[in-house]
Write a structure and sequence with these properties.
Chain lengths: 377, 377
C-alpha cells in the first residue's frame, strides 16, 4: 500500500483525472515580473515545512517575488531539514528570538501560539509580519486584508515605511467567501449572508491530508480506520468542523466568518451565519452562500460583476450542468463562482444564491499572504 | 483490486470503522409485530433489484411487515434473477400490464418513467401504489406523505378501502429535512428555510455507489478515473447535483425541496431555497438548514422538541464536538439532528441553525414508503 509522506505527492496522486480549466490570465497590480535577488527585500518563511509553508515557496516562485535573501524557519523538530528553492539549497533553521535580525518581511504559518510568541518579537526588530494564523486577526490596529477586497486597510502600514508591523491573513473560508461576495456587496450592500461550507482536509494541515488518504485505503481494504488527527472516520464521511464549539453553539471556524467579514468590510451591521463542515476532499473548499441585499441585484448583473472581478472566474453553465468543483480549483489562484441565481425564497431581486470554490492552501492562505507582501514592495 | 458488484457489500466495506450509536427504540404506531404470511395483504415490489428495491425487502423484514404473498418485479433485463427473502426463494418477474392482478399494495422504485407507465395500470387493477419516484408527487389528489409529518394526508385513501390509489413518497432530501424541521414548525411556524445539502452517492443508485468506490481505487492508484454515471470525478471531489437545471437556475433536486415542502406542510407561503451538492459519501445525506420563524423559538426549547420527536435522534454534544455524521446514520431508521443553535444573524430567537443527517436509502426512500404501507394495514 502506497502511503504519502509529503503533501506535494498528493497533488499528482489525488488530482489525477480532473478537468483543469484554463486559468484566467491576471495581469493585475499584484503581478511582479522581476526576480532580481539583489533588489528585493530580505524575507523569511516561518513554518516552512508545513503545507502552507511549502505553498508559500511555490507561490513566491510562481509570482517571481523579488527577494535579496530568504530564511527558512521552522520548529526545532524540523530544523536541519534541507529545502531546495529556485536553484539554491537551504537548511531549515530553528525559529528563535534572533531569527528576524535584518528580515524585512516574514510570512508566518506555524500556528497561533508561534505567531503570538514570535510575531511581536519580529515586529520589534522592524520586520513586517504577514501572519496566516488567527492570533492577531481581530486585534485593533492589525489590518486584516484580502488584497482584492480591502487594499485600503494596508495604507497605514505602507505609510510607516521601514517600521515593523503585523498584518493578518484572514481565515481561508472568509477569503474564499468574500472574494465572491465583495464585488456583489459593492454593488448592492449585503445585509445578511447564510453560509454553509464544504471544507477540505488541507485546512487541518498536511497530516490531515495524509490521514484522509490512509483512511480511504483502509476503508477500501475493510480495515479499521486510523484516527489520529480527527476523532472520527473522515473517509467517505463528513463532520462538523473540528474547531472548538463556543458557548453560543457556533464553532470557532464559523465565528471567524461572522467576525472577519465585519472587520474586512468595515461594516458592523452585516449579519452572517455559517455552518462549517469538513468533507473528504483534499485541498479546496466549497461554500454555498445565500445573500440578502439592501438594493435589488438581478442574477445577470451579478454574473457580469463577477466575470469582471479580479481573482474570480465564473463557471456557470446551466445547460451542461457545469459549475465549480473543488478539484477544478485545486492548485489554482482564482476563486470559482457558479450556480448564480435569484433566490426564490426572497422578494424580487433582493436575494441571490451562489456556490463558490477556492484552493484552501493557495488563495485561502499562501497566495493571499504573498499578495499582501507584494503590496509592501 | 476488489470491486463491488452488489450494494449490500458496501455496507460492510465502507462503514468499517464507524461509531454506531445505539438506535433509539421506537415502539411507535408504525411498528408491526406480527409476520403472518396468511393474514397480510398481497404485495409487490417494483424495481426489486435496485438499491431502494433491495432496501424495501430489508425494511419489510426488519419491521415484520405482514403479507400474504409478495411479487418481485423488475425490468425485462433483470427478470429471471433469483431473490431470497425470509426463507423463501423467488424469481424476479418481468413487470407487465398483468403484474398487478390481485396485488393490494405495490412499492415502486424503478424510476419516473416506469411509475408513469405502470402506476396508473396498477391503480386500475385496485392496487394501492406507494411510489418512490417523482412522477406523481406534485399531482393534485396524490398524497405526498411523511408518516411522522402529515399522516392526515392519507385519510382519503384509508377511507376508500379496497380502491386503487397513488401515494407518493417525497424526495429523500425533503423527507430528511422535514423530519427535523416539522416538529419546530409546529411550535413556531417556519417562514423561510435556507437549505444546503451534502448528498450521498446512493441517491443516484447502486451504480453510482460502485462508481464512487471504483474511482476512489483509481485515484489512489494514480489511474485515470472511470466516469460512467457522472460526467466528472466524484472521488475526493464534490459537485452541484446532477439533476437538470431549470430556467430559474435551480436544479430539479432543489425545486423538489421548495415545492414538496409546501405540499407536505399544506402551506403555500413557506419560503424555501436550496443548494444541492453531491459529496463523496456512500448512503446518507446531510443538510445544513437555516430556519426563520414567525414566533420566537429558543434553542433549548427546540432541542427538547426534537428529543421528543418520533423518528428523530438528537446528537448535539458541544463539549466533545459530537454531532451527526452520515456514517453514523447509515443503515439507521432515525434522522439525526445536531448543531442546534440560535442564528446570530437574526434578531432575538426568531432564527435557528441545525444540521441534519439521514440514511438516504432507508428513511429517505424505503423506510418511509413501508411506513406509508403500514398505515394502510
Amino acid at each position: 500500500m502506497a502511503t504519502l509522506t509529503h503533501p506535494t505527492r498528493l497533488k499528482t496522486t489525488l488530482f489525477g483525472g480532473a478537468r483543469i480549466p484554463t486559468p484566467k490570465s491576471r495581469p493585475g497590480p499584484f503581478r511582479v515580473r522581476m526576480s532580481l535577488q539583489e533588489s528585493g527585500p530580505s524575507i523569511a518563511v516561518v513554518g516552512v515545512t508545513g503545507a502552507v509553508g511549502q505553498e508559500f515557496l511555490s507561490v513566491l516562485h510562481d509570482r517571481d517575488f523579488p527577494y535579496r535573501s530568504i530564511k527558512m524557519l521552522a520548529s526545532k523538530r524540523s530544523a536541519g531539514q534541507k529545502v531546495s528553492f529556485e536553484g539554491q539549497n537551504y537548511v531549515v533553521e530553528e525559529l528563535t528570538r534572533d531569527s528576524f535580525d535584518g528580515v524585512e518581511i516574514a510570512l508566518f504559518s506555524a500556528g497561533g501560539s508561534i505567531s503570538k510568541e514570535f510575531g511581536p518579537i519580529a515586529v520589534e526588530r522592524g520586520t513586517i509580519v504577514v501572519d496566516n494564523s488567527s492570533a492577531f486577526r481581530m486585534q485593533d490596529g492589525v489590518p486584516l486584508v484580502v488584497p482584492e477586497v480591502n487594499p485600503e486597510a494596508m495604507e497605514g502600514i505602507k505609510a510607516g515605511k521601514g517600521k515593523g508591523a503585523l498584518i493578518a491573513n484572514p481565515n481561508c473560508s472568509t477569503i474564499i467567501c468574500l472574494m465572491a461576495a465583495t464585488p456583489l456587496h459593492r454593488h448592492s450592500k449585503v445585509k445578511r449572508m447564510v453560509v454553509s461550507t464544504y471544507q477540505a482536509a488541507s485546512g487541518a494541515g498536511a497530516a490531515a491530508m495524509r490521514e484522509l488518504e490512509l483512511q480511504t485505503h483502509e476503508v477500501l481494504e475493510g480495515k479499521p480506520v486510523t484516527c489520529e488527527i480527527f476523532q472520527r472516520q473522515y473517509a467517505f464521511n463528513l463532520f462538523s468542523h473540528n474547531s472548538a464549539v463556543l458557548p453560543n453553539g457556533y464553532n470557532e471556524e464559523e465565528m471567524k466568518l461572522v467576525k472577519e467579514t465585519r472587520k474586512i468590510w468595515n461594516d458592523k451591521d452585516v449579519k452572517v451565519t455559517a455552518t462549517c463542515i469538513r468533507v473528504p476532499v483534499m485541498r479546496a473548499h466549497a461554500e454555498s452562500v445565500n445573500l440578502e441585499f439592501e438594493k435589488p441585484l438581478d442574477e445577470d448583473t451579478a454574473r457580469d460583476i463577477l466575470k469582471k472581478a479580479p481573482g474570480v472566474v465564473v463557471i456557470d453553465d446551466r445547460s451542461s450542468n457545469n459549475f465549480p468543483t473543488p478539484l477544478e480549483v485545486s492548485n489554482k489562484d482564482d476563486v470559482a463562482v457558479g450556480r448564480i441565481r435569484r433566490d426564490v425564497s426572497q422578494e424580487g431581486n433582493y436575494g441571490l444564491d451562489i456556490f463558490v470554490c477556492g484552493d484552501q492552501i493557495r488563495k485561502g492562505a499562501a497566495l493571499n499572504a504573498v499578495q499582501i507582501a507584494e503590496m509592501l514592495l
